[in-house]
Amino acid sequence: MDGSDVRTRDQPSSVPRSPAEVSAPCRVAAPDEGISHEELTLAARNHGLPLEALRYDVTPPGLHYILVHYDIPAADADTWTLKVHGRVRTPLTLDLAALRALPPVTHRVTMECAGNGRARLDPRPVSQPWLVEAVGTADWTGVPLRTLLAEAGVEPDAVEAVFTGADHGVERGVEQDYARSLTVQDAIATDPEVLVAYEMNGAPLPPQHGYPVRLIVPGWYGMAHVKWLTDIELTDAPFTGFQQAVAYRFRQSSGEPGEPVTRIAPRALMIPPGFPDFMSRTRVVRPGPVRLEGRAWSGRAPVTKVEVSADDGASWQTAELAAAQGDPWSWRHWHAPWTATPGRHVLTVRATDAEGTAQPLTQPWNRGGFANNEVQRIPVVCCQ
To answer: Which of 179, 264, 334, 380 could form a disulfide with 319 if both were Cys (CB 3.0 to 4.6 A apart)?
Structure first.
């Protein structure tokens, strides 16, 4: 038997028997482990908000953060349909024209990825390596989900609505369409009002933001806002799909069931002042008055206070918080004066909401790296 015979005979054993065999389990980075090639690949596919874009009340679509779990589906608006079925009296199949014919509403909603801040944790959960930039605010136009459910007629025994998108992939060994659920109570609520949206900032959804139709769940982290929406099923039992029962849960170890990730924790971000060094992004400012400003939001209760510090949290001053405008689930502008003096400084900002919850100075760790709302820190050098 020569070498070619051996390779031919052994080849089948190296071929995966299913897509699940090419999908690695989740893990936590080893001490001092750098960002992996796989994480860099994710970072190249997904992008965050450039922090200077916090100047815009409404984020331009190309600057709004993006997280795509699998591939952006090839969607055709002419053939797209949305099915509403399961525990309903009258199943619906709607095309885009039928959806647009219903009375539209528009909500301005701040959306944040549940993994925002993950890369700052130690040890680092290995996944999309966000710092603080996974956020954006848009005007979303569509039909209230409760309108569709009222037309379909939800049966009394329905407990959840399951939302399925057209994006398909494999994650931690599970082949799946991306799907999430809400309780019926959350699905039909008036505040926040869930939308089946087909426009972003007055134009059709861009492909990366869920064209032609997506779900918008104000106040919830981004995993709930199912993109490329094709199916809504009312069920008489809680949904146990991967994205609901396995992913997006707070865990300290891999074996525990964990608590679900839901609403956005309070956060404030600052537009980095001055100008940056290209590689390090260290900010440089001139001595004298500097206006500090940014945005603050929470998905749990309205933001009531924003504070800034120029000495890494040793002392704080209260910023001026702009009045809430329009939708309560949108961020609010804040600003504060600072007199820069020569030397090195660490600027910090934190938000507190109406429930009394303030951003932590250090973040409790969880295995998925979720809801990390530790305060933002910006190193600044003030030159002579």
So the answer is: 334
Nearest to 140 by CA among 238, 239, 206, 231: 206
CB atoms < 10 A from the CB of 37, how many? 7
How far is it, in rounded angstroms, from Cα 185 to Cα 162?
13
State the amino acid at position 291 in one-letter form. Answer: R
Burial letters for 161-195: b for 16+ Cβ neighbours within 10 Å, e otherwise?
Answer: bbbbbbbeebbeeeebbbbbbbebebbbbeebbbb
Q: Where in the chain is the domain with CATH 2.60.40.650?
A: 267-382
pLDDT, tens digit, 9 for 90 and up, residues 143-159? 999 999 999 999 999 99
Could you report the per-residue pLDDT of 159-208, keeping only the tens digit for each? 999 999 999 999 988 999 999 999 999 999 999 999 999 999 999 999 99
Q: Measure Cα distances from 119 to 36, 85, 115, 133, 251 in Å.
A: 12, 40, 9, 11, 17
Task: Count CB neighbours of 18 within 10 A.
Answer: 10
Q: 3-class DSSP state for residue 195? A: strand
- Give yes or no for a contact between 316 and 308, defined as CB atoms under 8 angstroms apart: yes
From the list 275, 282, 286, 310, the residue with the least C-alpha distance to 379 is: 282
Q: Is 244 helix (H, G, I), strand (E, B) or coil?
A: helix
List, for residues 325-374, the tens digit of each pLDDT value.
778 999 999 999 999 999 999 999 999 999 999 999 999 999 999 999 99
What's phi and psi for 94, nearest 5 deg? -115, 135
Q: How many CB atoms lie within 10 A of CB 224?
A: 25
Q: The domain 267-382: what is its CATH number?
A: 2.60.40.650
For CATH 3.90.420.10, list the domain ranges present in the chain: 22-260
273 within 8 A of 345, measured Cβ to Cβ: no
Helix (H) or strand (E) run with residue 368 in it: none
pTM confidence score: 0.94
Residue 292's nearest CA partner among 329, 264, 321 is 321
- Find out whether 134 and 112 touch, Cβ atoms under 8 Å: yes
Asked if 208 contacts 173 with a C-beta cutoff of 8 angstroms, the reply is: no
Residue of 274, 241, 242, 272 lying closest to 348 (CA atoms): 272
